[in-house]
Write a structure and sequence with these properties.
The protein is α/β, with parallel strands linked by helices. Helix content is 49%, strand content 16%.
């Protein structure tokens, strides 16, 4: 097992941006677990699965599904779906389906296997608490709801998505509620994770804080 730097936090906290650059700076591999959940959501929706459907219906789709994250790209049954999974609709369904135990169980080994022969930076909602509870380094990246909603709005606007700031805030707030209240692997800060509030920090400042925290042992 390689070294694992695990980063958790709510939607819009800047986890992906920081994790990618941290991995690049350290020469680690980057694992975008959110992309894996989006790929699963895409697979389920393509088969007409609804959030209220039974576990058996979900399993019937997932048993034939192959999801991988390789060199920054997401593959579903060997097809590159990196762009397809980035819609607001799939983002919504990934959040909804991620609350299902059958989905989380399906992705658990896929995520853990990424660290078998590599040093990785893994970011998500339960990296520090469930997937990699013994991670070498743990961080919890947070920001105010207003700041995270603003970042979400600008991100989607840059991609050409027609969305208002109010809609972006509503989306982030709903994700927060689902992530923190679900019975299976709810979003929470691990007791031994370093908490970083990025509300008034640049990405560069956040990155330097994380590097400073790990530099003494690297």
């Amino acid at each position: 097992m390689g070294k694992v730097i695990a980063i958790d936090g709510p939607s819009g906290a800047g986890k992906s941006t920081i994790a990618k650059e941290l991995a690049r700076r350290l020469g680690f591999s980057y694992l975008d677990t959110g992309a894996l959940y989006r790929a699963v959501a895409l697979a389920l929706r393509e088969k007409g699965i609804e959030p209220e459907d039974s576990d058996d219906k979900l399993k019937a789709v997932l048993v034939y599904a192959q999801v991988n994250f390789v060199e920054g790209k997401v593959f579903f049954n060997k097809k590159d779906v990196s762009e397809e999974i980035r819609t607001t609709e799939i983002g919504h369904y990934s959040s909804v389906f991620s609350a299902r135990k059958v989905v989380r169980d399906f992705l658990l080994d896929i995520q853990r296997n990424a660290a078998l022969n590599n040093n990785i930076v893994a970011e998500g909602r339960d990296m520090t608490t469930v997937v990699f509870p013994d991670a070498w380094k743990k961080f919890y990246l947070d920001a105010t709801l207003n700041e995270r909603a603003k970042r979400r709005y600008l991100q989607l606007k840059d991609k050409g998505t027609n969305i208002t700031e109010h809609e972006a805030e509503k989306d982030v707030a709903e994700r927060d509620a689902r992530d923190s209240s679900r019975d299976i692997a709810p979003l929470r800060k691990a007791g031994d994770a370093v908490h970083i509030d990025s509300s008034v920090m640049t990405a560069g400042e956040v990155l330097e804080n994380i590097l400073k925290s790990i530099r003494s042992e690297f």
